[in-house]
Amino acid sequence: MTESTTDILIVGGGPAGMMTGITAAQFSPHKKVLVIRPETDAVIPCGIPYIFGTLGGTDEDMAGRAPLLAAGGQLRMGTVQKIDRVAHSVTLADGDVIHWERLVLATGAENFIPPIPGTHLEGVFSIHKDYDYLDRLFSTLIPQIKKLAIIGGGFIGVEFADEIRKRGIEVHIVEMLPHLMQAAFDLDACAAVEKQLQAHDVHIHTGARVEALLPDASGKRVGQVQISGQEALTVDAVLIAIGTRPQVVLARDMGLTLSRSGGVWVDAFQRSREDPDIFAVGDCAHKQDFFTRKANHAMIASQAAAEGRIAGMNLYGLRQLRYNAGSVSVYASEIDGLAFGVAGLTQHQAEQEGFPILIGEARLPDHHPASMPNTTEIYCRIIFAADSLQILGGQILGGATTGELVNTIGLAIQMHASAPDLASMQFGSQPRLTPSLHPLVAATGDALRRHYEPPLHPCITGAPHA
Q1: Closest listed residue to residue 357, CA positions, set 460, 450, 459
Q2: In the chain, which end has fewer C-beta atoms inside a 10 angstrom radius, N or C?
Q3: Mean pLDDT, 10 residues at a time, over the chain (466 residues)?
Q4: Phi then psi for 273, rounded to 5 degrees?
Q5: Is the torsion defined by CA of 348, 353, 359, 361 positive or negative?
Q6: Quick check: 389 and 415 in contact, CB under 8 A?
């Protein structure tokens, strides 16, 4: 057993942990920063589905350690078994002890496996952010599959379905809600995603509840998926992709407060409630919605990295201008040329929360003129609060520009932009790179037209000008 000391100890080396380490090293260059994680090789979480199709192997999805090392941080392989809050120390599985001034928990999440019979059978798997596990899937299980069922029609299920079908495997998505992606998008976007998948022979079963996974003739391997009210679906393997839960064993053992949604309770600077020297970031930390402050389950790498930056800046003194104002939830993905993204609230979510809303829509080509090569239509849908005209959310269906358009919407939400702000936004335009009119400006103009149309707007009275 050896003992050592560091100033900042970060437990977990995913996007949240690594970004915390990079930021802490930049903002506190006189402090020693150590990230400890169990994996020698870490994968990029968002790239995992693409291992099985586009990338063609686990080695093509590696997360680099160079940015952390270049910033002055250090990385160590190991597993933390115990944390002593009073002594400011952690004990590793090999018996080594590390003492710290500031501790950051970035322990991530674990897959949720539903309590249905048969999940223990061979051939039933979920996606873990582990190089060796994913490499075994790619090299041993996937090549044997001819027919795969995916339980869950969210981002992971949809992306994995599109990638795995590229290997000539028959894919079935089983989703309990009436549409795929329904928790994240309004129905028009859901329908577009479903149509694109079906065009590539992905079979979609919506409004379908899985009752059990049944064994094949061997009694050991999965052979069928029993869907309520339907004939059993014969399969070779099953992917369970219905969500994750915060990994908080270390936090619970330390006596840190956990929220009812399961994450470590943190304040706006990612500090734990019990100890200002202990922070939590990423999937293991509780999140609150930007608008309502209700629990938000945005367990995505971009949100985790943002929390890492906040924690890294505030470890040794609060920087009031850099705090967590709430989760906006910015998502984007793509299926064979159809990109789809969302930021903030959907129409359904806004109406459920009780916001009176105003909607603006626009369809336009992403290049100008539209005869330019590789032109794709963009559909932009923006949700505003009807009273203040503040932007609440937006969705994009389009091509290569979708990701940045959604990020722009996310930034507008965080800046509390209003419809007049966006309508007067200055933007650059280039025929090969952009539309002639920015989609956000076009959709905002549509919303304002609706807003100022009688009888909606009280200032519009009398007859129109001759």
Answers
A1: 450
A2: C
A3: 95 95 95 93 82 85 85 94 96 96 96 94 91 87 93 94 94 97 93 96 97 96 95 95 93 94 94 96 94 85 92 89 82 93 95 96 93 93 97 96 95 96 93 90 96 67 48
A4: -70, -40
A5: negative
A6: no
Place of tokens 């710290």: 100
pTM for the full predicted model: 0.89
* pLDDT at residue number 65: 85
Q: Which residue has the tokens 């979920």?
A: 126
Structure token pair of residue 57: 């192997």
From CA 207, how far away is CA 198, in angstroms rounded? 16
